Amino acid sequence: MTTVLDSFRPDGARRWRIGVIDGPNMPNLGNRSQKIYGPIRSLADLQDLVRRTADDLGVTVTPFASNHEGEILDFIHATAKDVDGWIINPAGLTTYGEATRHALDDTTKPVVEVHFSNTMRHFAEVAPHYGQQTSRFTYTATGLVMGLRQYSYLGALLALTLALDDDDFLAGGTRRH
Ligand SMILES: O=C1C[C@@](O)(C(=O)O)C[C@@H](O)[C@@H]1O
C-alpha cells in the first residue's frame, strides 16, 4: 500500500535498518510527568507508533529500552553491524552517559538524539542549580530532535531515512556527517 510517507522517497529506496534506543526511566514512560511526556500511555505505545511509521516509510526499526547502561552497551555492540543508523533517547543517561555515547560513536553510524522535552528549557527551569547542564550526546550526534514529545521520534525517523537515502549526505551510513 502506498502511504503519504512513501512519496518522500525515491522508487526502489533501500529498507534501512534503524536501532531505536530508549534509556533509563523510559521503560516507566506511562507513569512519568504528563506535563513533560503528555498523555502517551506506555513505552509499548511509543514503540508501536515508531514501528508503524517505519513501516509506512519502508524502513525497519529495532527498538530497545533498558534502565541499565550495561544492557544498552551490549545491545549496541551486538547490533552495530546490522544497523544503518541510530535514534537514541538517552533519557537518564543524557548528562553523564559517556560510555553509551562512545559506544555509538565507535560504530561510525549516524546517530540522531531525541528527547520528548526541550532539554535546554527543562534544565533551565527544573534544575538551574545544576549549573550549565548539557547533553553528553549532542557533541558527536549527527542531529538532534527535541521538544516535540513522541513526535520527536517521528521527525528523527523521517529525517534519518531521507538522509540515508541521500548520496551527497549520509549515503546509507557509509560516511559520518
Ligand atoms: O529521562 C529523561 C527524558 C528526556 O530524555 C526526554 O525525553 O525529554 C529528558 C531527560 O532530561 C530526562 O532525564
From TrEMBL:
Reactions the enzyme catalyzes: 3-dehydroquinate = 3-dehydroshikimate + H2O
InterPro entries: DHquinase_II, DHquinase_II_sf
Pfam families registered for this protein in UniProt: DHquinase_II
Superkingdom of this protein's organism: Bacteria
GO BP, sorted A to Z: chorismate biosynthetic process; quinate catabolic process
Pathway assignment: Metabolic intermediate biosynthesis; chorismate biosynthesis; chorismate from D-erythrose 4-phosphate and phosphoenolpyruvate: step 3/7
Gene Ontology molecular function: any one: 3-dehydroquinate dehydratase activity
Complex formation: Homododecamer.
Assigned protein family: Belongs to the type-II 3-dehydroquinase family.
Protein name per UniProt: 3-dehydroquinate dehydratase
Organism: Nakamurella alba
Lineage, uppermost ranks: Bacteria, Bacillati, Actinomycetota, Actinomycetes, Nakamurellales
